[in-house]
Amino acid sequence: MHNRQDIKWREDIERCTRLYEGFAEAAPFVKAVYECVYNFFEDYPVAPQPAVDPKEAADRLRTGRSLEVNPALDTKDAVELLKRITQALAEVNPELEGTMKVLAENFEQFVLNSPDRVSKEDMWSLCQLLVNDTELEQDLATFLFSITLSSFFRQHTQSTVEVLRTDLWQEGNCPLCGEMPHYGMLRPEDGAKEMECWLCGTKWVHARIKCPFCGNEEQESLGYLTVENREICRINFCQQCRQYSKIIDARKFNASGGIILSIHNLASLSHDLLARQEGFTPGSGLEWVNSGEITDSREVVEKW
Ligand SMILES: [Zn+2]
Ligand SMILES: [Zn+2]
Question: How many domains does the chain have?
Answer without folding.
Answer: 2
